[in-house]
Amino acid sequence: MSRLTEEQMVALWKEHTDLEFATRDAPATVATMARHNSVNHVPVMTGGRGAEGLLHFYGTHFIPKVPADASLRLLARTVGTDRLVDEFVFSFTHDLVMDWMLPGVAPTHRKVEIPMVAVVTFEEGKLASERIYWDQASVLVQVGLLERGTLPVTGIEQTLKFEDDSRPSNELIERARPG
Predict the structure, then answer these.
(1) Would you give the distance in Å from CA 174 to the centre of its chain?
(2) Phi and psi of 170, rounded to 5°?
(3) What span, in angstroms and rounded, lies between the C-alpha atoms of 52 and 54?
């Protein structure tokens, strides 16, 4: 099969994410993927490999474990020959156990907004792999499991800076200076 065009990659990625977050259909989500596929949520190493592994992951640990109010706000997209990179904000209320992001953590009912990066590759006219990156410390701060205190971590400020580059930089450096 010939390579997908940029427009085809974007359309397939949109279909895939719509099936995950709107339709919530695990078999249809996996059907958008190539035979040799993988998903890796890098900070917590959740995901899977192969149709059977991903059908189990999407059907058991991801789709039913995404909060109803979850949303994605795209900031930037880069499309290359066989890959797409999205920078976006994932926003949700932590109102259920989220196996794929916060395994074993009881709902805190707190609002979370976290910058994410998805690196998606394509082959055989379908999605071949997804590597999703985010700052788990920021998630833990926002759900109340990690105190900022003297640790060099941020919460929602990370998202605010991500979406508005005019916000101040180096606040953690200033906070760390001896008083």
Answers:
(1) 30
(2) 70, 20
(3) 6
**Residue-wise pLDDT tens digits, 69-125:** 999 999 999 999 999 999 999 999 999 999 999 999 999 999 999 999 999 999 999
Do the beta carbons of residue 20 and residue 32 sit within 8 Å?
no
Query: Residue for token digits 């695990």?
Result: 26
Q: Count how many residues are written for the chain.
A: 179
Q: Which two tokens stand for residue 9?
A: 């990659």
Is residue 75 within 8 A of residue 87, CB to CB? The reply is: yes
Checking DSSP bridges between strand 126-134 and strand 33-41, what pairing results, if any? parallel
Q: What is the rounded distance in angstroms from the CA atom of residue 126 to the CA atom of residue 32? A: 6
Structure tokens at 51: 């149709």
pTM for this structure? Answer: 0.91
Structure tokens at 71: 């949303």
CA dihedral defined by 13, 72, 69, 130, rounded to 10 degrees?
50
